Amino acid sequence: MSSNPIATPLGTTLSTPSPTELQDQDPLAAEAEKASMPHSHSTQALKHIYLVVATTPCKNGRLGIGMNGKLPWPMIRADMDYFKKVTRDGSGTGTYDGSVGKVSNSVIMGRKTYESIPPRFRPLAGRNNVIVTRSKPMDVARSILDDLEKQAGDARGKRAELERKQAESPTATVTQQLKMAEAEFEVVSNDETNTVAVRSKIEGVVPGVTIGSNLRSAAEHCLSQSGEVYCIGGAEIYNAFLKDETLRPKLRILQTEIRKLKDDEEFECDTFWPEDLEDAQNGWSEVQTGQLQKWTRVEPPQGASVDWKDDEKVGVRLRVRGWEPKS
Ligand SMILES: NC(=O)c1ccc[n+]([C@@H]2O[C@H](COP(=O)([O-])OP(=O)(O)OC[C@H]3O[C@@H](n4cnc5c(N)ncnc54)[C@H](OP(=O)(O)O)[C@@H]3O)[C@@H](O)[C@H]2O)c1
Q1: Which tens digit of pLDDT belongs to each residue from 208-226?
Q2: Which residue stretches does the UniProt record annotate as biased composition, category Low complexity (predicted)?
Q3: Least packed by Cβ within 10 Å: which of 58, 140, 209, 268?
Q4: To test ligand 1's pocket by mutation, which of 56, 112, 135 has the most ligand atoms within 8 angstroms of CB?
Q5: Mean pLDDT of 283-297
């Protein structure tokens, strides 16, 4: 294990204040300080953190987001495509082939949400994956290393089949699995940022994962990078962002609303979105149609429009909405 600086969102050598300094600072003083800093810091002051969430109304009056550690609904292709397009390609930074390019977006998530992603889709391709945990980052890193090495072993075992599929009809998943077959992983700790990265030894081939235990620090580091910053849940992490008075003014919310087509039925949920966006007292305003596309710079895919669209196959209707803090 080395302690060299590493090329990951939390691993780069930065001159931003230390996590403790950030937490101790008065938010306004911190903003003013950032505004007077060199390029990356003033960019950071202008950047936003997008909370990307899919919600469903529940009888308890709350918006459900999860059930038993997974999503409450079956796979909804339009929502998955929208999530991928926004977080991977939003602002035109996507690398499209699943690797991490020079400019990639960052996705910040809780440890449980990372574990809820089906193994063949994690780490999320073409994005810098950033996980927060209250446990020791090294412990989480070791378990992720085991997971990635298993995935690489499985991919090597079926390399011939993957190569045949790639020749016949290539898909992003097959491309990613072939890259996985080539990958060897290493764990690198960065004492300066108190983070641990699990990354491919060949840089950029498979997206790396960076694990840290300070949410504010993770967000600030991601903001200082070139790509966009997305918080992709779950409930604990959304809540922590919403409650952080320094980060809150930077937040924008990208919400996909999902309802069952049968009005009297609902999805059972045990995990909920923390705040009522419709309640004026909470200080959110919905953005106008068209503003969403300006934010994300991607078209809402068919079925995930700003108007309700029915997906008869899954038995749901969905629409996308955007929210920003009231000025
Ligand atoms: N509908 C959606 O859009 C959506 C999106 C994402 C997730 N989900 C669903 O939401 C559920 C998971 O949400 P969740 O709230 O249970 O878990 P989560 O927010 O994904 O992860 C919680 C974990 O994150 C770490 N953590 C939380 N707050 C932290 C902080 N302030 N600093 C450092 N680490 C922190 C802790 O990890 P340790 O335990 O390791 O200490 C904690 O156990 C799943 O059902 C998932 O499918 C839904």
Answers
A1: 899 999 999 999 989 988 8
A2: 8-20
A3: 268
A4: 112
A5: 86
